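Chapter summary example.
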Amino acid sequence: MNLLVDPKEQAWLQQLLNALADPKVQAWLQQQNKTEAVAPAPAAESTEEMMSTRVEAVRERIAEMVGAIPGMPAEFDNAGEEHKESGIILDLTRCGPARE
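The structure predicted for these 100 residues follows.
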């Protein structure tokens, strides 16, 4: 073995090569490869399933938003009452297109 390697590493590499050449080690490695090949791969989600899941999530979110609409006027009234004194709420009747 004429590798340009440190003598300690060269000895280690030689031991590794000797171990890999051992018929018992080769049989074990072949068994490991067979075992890995037999193990089923996790099922990937199909495009159809992925889209169906996402569409369902969007539908649920829209339903939540539609369900919140009836309570919005009361929420705006509460926000207006809370902030009327602080001057945050402006009189929007004075805003708008210029009037002549």
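To summarize the output: The chain has a mean pLDDT of 77.
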